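Quick question: what would this complex look like in 3D?
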Amino acid sequence: MRKLIWLAAMLAVWGAGVADAQQPTPRKGGTIRMTAPYAASFGSLDPQVTPRAQDDIVNKAIHRTLYNWDTANSKLVLELATSVSVSADGLVYTYKLRDDAYFHNGRKMTADDLIWSYTRIMDGSKGYPGARYVRLIKGAIDVEKGQAKEISGLRKIDDFTLEMTITDRVEPGYYFFSGTTSILPREEVEKGNFASAPVGLGPFKFKEHIPGSRVVTERFDKFYKPGKPYLDKLEVLIMAEAAARDVAFRNKEIDTSILGPAQYVAYRADPQLSKGILEVAEMFTRAITFNHDVKPFGDKRVRQAINYAIDADLIVKRLVKDKAYRAVSWLPPSSAAFDKSFKPYAYDPAKAKKLLAEAGMPNGFEFELTTSQNESWGLPIVEAIIPMLDKVGIKLKPKLVEVTVLTEILTKGEHQAVISSNLTGPDSLATLRCFYSKTPRTACHYTDYSNPDFDKLLDTAAQEGDMAKRDALLRQANNLLYEDAPVWFFNYNKAVLAYQPWIHGLQANPTEITHQYPEDVWVDATSPAK
Amino acid sequence: MLLVLARRLANVIPTLVAVVALVFLLFSVLPGSFISGMSEDGRTTIDPAVMERMRKEMGLDDPLPERFAKYVAHTAVGDLGISFRTREPVTRLIGGRVWPSLKLVFAAMTFAILVGVPLGFLAALKPGSIVDTVSMVFAISGLSLSQFWLGLMLMYLFALNFKWLPSFGYGDGGLSHIILPAIALGVGPMALLARTTRAAVLEILNADFVRTARSKGMSERRVVEWHVLRNALVLVITIVGLQFGSLMGAAVVIEKLFAWPGVGSLLIDSVFQRDIPTVQGCILLIVLFFLLINTLVDLAYVAIDPRIRHG
């Protein structure tokens, strides 16, 4: 009997070892039902028309861009090209394009498609959002202004070789991985109903769109990555209401769901649901943007005092329910220019009082903070800050506005201070330019912060061709922001995606967690979706 | 009948003009624009040069009177403009949402009538009884409940617990997906109908002509069928019409909660994103629907009660 028990135990241990050693093999077939949580509809299925994160959830499945973001390695990779060579001056890029990429109408993609797509984006009469990226190409502005019909910086060498001349020494991948620069087939766009029947290069082809309800796509068999996609069908279901999403997810009617702070706590506490949670520090920094043109925010000591006076850790823990990472400086941890040796401002009211006294305000001051209703960076946070600032003598008057209005207030400079969420990646240079003194306020320089040392670091970084050296310079610039505290550094968004146990291959994409690479996703046989 | 119709239609025109002007002016003075709304809570940054071009393309920099004149001229010929958000004609955008909205409104009203009217009748026929008390508790609760909360409770109960129905979405447009949102939307009108029907029936039951009918030996069943029902119907139709007309607008919350692709969810999205042409189009449609239903109710009065026709 003892021998039998011993044998059984050994078999069990061996079995467990085998199970651990085996990676699950992706299964072909099945359906995934993803959710689009940011609005009650899609803006457009023409990816060049819309910059919205909500629309890109679908567009990532149907369309493709020249570059893509490699989540596993946190870097940009070529998507529609197999290789690229760069000239010595860092301004001419020669792309060897894929010769196996087909549009869903069966036509092979060529260099002409890239040239046509980028030229369309520069149509000055349309105001396509991707123009901000394509403007990098030499001669693109002339097309935008109507002074030229072709972008002079784009040259077709042959069907699968494209030469691109850019105007600045930057990494073009940051510009041409945006969904707004997707490559489209001219003949389909010119039919006039492209947004209703989009045709792209992506792993899934469009099948159905019920406006306000869902988009259904099917596997594209001629997709250029062998064996992919795994799924037969991908559905994106619009579900703007968090409570309804929660019910649908628990009821197994959807396969993925974005969680808010309250749900995050509930899901973490649940033994089953906690097994399917994907978390990532997204490239969004939540902060109070001080207008340095308004007294006393031009004084660094005052801004530092506010950073010391607020117990941000407590707010993140109690109010945001740990669904955020405490911000250190402006760039998020996923940036190569983030300095891991830096720690956030400590909660130190005594130091805050001392700094205020040094700034000539021992009795504090009063200011107006414009805020939205957002639960993670809006009024609930402001209400928690009020007593903390009051302790050091600063009176805060909240001014509640609709979230739609925040950007307008910031661009007009009509604020004393605004609490908001800010896109801070993946291009660290572009992100830090929001603090560059020559950047206009309308282009995100909402603080009107000015520091010649910071400007110099950015100028040097922009000229630096060696990416490691550039990152080092940007790190210094980011650390300078920490010291100068042009904003109150609050938190980096912790995006949380709940997924069902039968879903595999999801990636914690820090640029936007809802933007998955659907060709890598697969479902096992336990999925209830047919 | 035709005279009544002509009179009603003549009244509709100034109402529509007032609505068009009010909506246009309201959204012209509201802070925030479509372009700032594109930032999606800070998820996207918009290039200032692109913003400038979009403002120009959409005519947002034109003087207000000029924009208003253009808007009225286009609306008069059925052109509701181009959506800022999708760059599609607003008529096409709204067109895809009308049928789901109508389905939901009809389903909600059917529920309200089928439950509310019999409930009110039962309560009135046995005043003070347990049936009356339970019906009225039910009715008052229905009036007091928040649509959003009720919708969530229905989801929890019938989708999550009993697994009888899907919790959200349009599905293939079949019956199973419409039941929960229709009940959540229909409970308010149902409660109002129950209370109104009860009050109307009670009043008629005490009227002289009912007493006369009874004294002539008419059976209670015939009294109810011949006298009470017909007379109560005028009031019931008024409430049905008013509720029916306003349901498309009231469906905003329910459509968003249940991810129902109707005009309401389009409207709320468009308001948040300051897609003004779409907002104006949706509101215009909701008002038109309200006016249409009211006109039909007026015609129904005439058909039911000859006194109204002659008056």
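Answer marked as accepted. The radius of gyration of chain B is 24 Å.
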